[in-house]
Amino acid sequence: MSDNAATVEAKLPKDLAAEKGLVNVQIDGVWMQVPKGMRMIEACKLAQKEVPHYCYHPKLSAPGNCRMCLVQMGMPPRPAPGQDPVRDGEGYENIGWIPRPVIACANTVGENMGIRTTGELVEKCREGVMEFLLINHPLDCPICDQAGECRLQEFSVEHGKGESRFVDAKVKKPKNVDIGPRVRLDDERCIMCSRCIRFMDEVADDPVLGFTQRGTHTTLTVHPGKRLDSNYSLNTVDICPVGALTSNDFRFQMRVWFLKETKSIDINCGTGANITIWTRGEKVHRITPRQNDEVNSTWMPDSHRLNFHYIDGDTRLAGPILKGSNGHQPASWSAVIAATAAELKKFQPGEVAIIASARMTNEELFLTRELAGAINCSLFTTVPRDGESDGLLISADRNPNTTGAKLVWQSQDPAGPLFAIREGVRNGSIKALLVLGEDLADAGFTAEDLAKPEFIASIQLLAGPTAHASDVVLPGAAFAEKRGSMVNVTGRLQRLNRAVEPIGDAKDDWEILRDLILALQGAKPGTGLAAIEDVFKAMAASVPEFDDLSLSKIGDLGKPVVETGVKIPLLQNERARKAAGLING
Amino acid sequence: MAVVKVTRPKLNTGEKMYLGAIFKGFIITMKHAVASLRNKTRGAEAMESSGMGITMQYPEQKWDEHLPEYYRGAPALVTDEQDRERCVSCQLCEFICPPKAIKITPSEISSDDPWAKVEKRPLEFEIDMIRCIYCGMCEEVCPEQAIYLRKDYAITGVTRAEMVHDKKKLYEIGGKRVGLVNKWNELK
Q: Exposure of A127 by Cβ count < 10 A (0-12 exposed, 13-18 middle, 19+ buried)?
């Protein structure tokens, strides 16, 4: 018994923590265990103590150059030879506080370390750093696009002085510098945090940015003869804590405080990067990446984030159209649905083919299969869209939901029948086409082929050759206008959310499909499924991978539903850097 | 607390019929009527009356010269001494406006403009005067001293569209305002 008690007593907090690979850290008076090797700033984040910072970013290395994250640190004093460490009642050693500050971003935690994120020393330091940062910063917040989401603004409210004590003229630097096709640089606003330089070097692997000059004259610029034209350049705008780097696309469009944020996913490739859609009223103003360490970390490619202007562009179809003797004419929804159903019924089952899209959500693909069942059609396909992976985030599969199509249709090759359909159209055995959100040119149909079928009905977003060749055009909803789910290349089920209402008279694709099925079955309109949640429920009953899930259960970060073996290269790089201790991630 | 009993006053017959009170009131009214006709009402001079007591004959007569300095009329945009439009379309007034009367479309100043260094100005600036409540918050929030409440109060129109002041109209009402802080003139 006494033996036992002795061993229990021998277990000091440091030993208990060491067993788990953790260390004890006291943050603002509270002891907690954090992983060994963690940076102090991350430990403070775990303790929910905010340490203001500019240059530190969890996905980038920490040069420690902004000096904003100064905290007070303490370690137990080294005992004299032969002296035992002094411990308090709980077994922690007494902390000897260092009378000067240290930066929290570039120092790692140690056993029995103390951190103070408040107190006179720390607060005075922050105020001093803020004052220095603001010495040369222009006061053009009314113009600056960053206003409203500017760290410098935020921290100067908390830690800054009301007015400047600086009497000399501010240093003049280049303004409105054209450094790349999508990014504008204002050097006067730059606070030299070097986040953009490190991002381009460490993540985008295209080191084109750097500092020239010294001291207050330090200037951010592109290397001679280079441009900031990487497909990841707009991420530097996201991570810039001030308004030094701004997006040409979003520049002067709208102040951020008017914008509503909707969490959704990107649909330009199989990666399905998590995004935030920023809208005001019914207009999408910008798209930014949203952190998901299993999909896109905190980044996304420019080509994907800028691909939203078509949503309210000139070619967008905003109402149903019926082709008559005098060309394409606007029609009512009930008329086009009835016309499509009536036309489709005229053909034999083998004469109708459905060309669906792997850009559709799982719910829409499920209803597509139902629709194929309703007209007894066995020829339904998606259109493959293969490109090359860029070795970072863009997947070789440019369709966002190929994995979803495989799961929902229970087919290994959902694009398999496409060849047979194309041949069927060419030799005249297929007389009617139902095109769902797909561009027939992408599917390998020539203008000549498009003239062959007797009847084409298509759900389309934009005016184009496919819509032009269609006898019935059903305007669908763009990705920002619909709710639904998709499965990315790694087998992660993710959710799209509606940020804006469908434009004009356009309708959610799943509602169009539902109405078509009802019309084909001769059922009364309005008797089908009422909400997208019900569609998911019906689908989950037939897809084992979605068993026990619902749209709301997917959550903002998605749920892995199937193992595909596909890896996202950027995440591999990031994990390697994390394992090497370069970043905390 | 002690209870105080109040007895009803005893009224005589004359008092019960209000005759005396009515007559007294009549005398007072007549006194004022005569004073009005003789234009001897109190304050008549200060209020620039029409000669009939204190009443002013609007709209033939207006009180405009007497509006106080702080009078809050129609909000308008102003230019500075060099005719530069002061507004940089920061949209703070649009944000603060309680009835949401303001709508701004921002735009970039082209690089060949003499004021290119300001970078931003409104492409369109609309104030819906049907919505405006003349609260003056736009003036208070403006970081560029660009919007002021002027003394115009008779804002009329026959259609809703006419009641929306566009940028041109706003500068017309606002005019030039001198002696303000001109931060864009400094070496910048």
A: middle
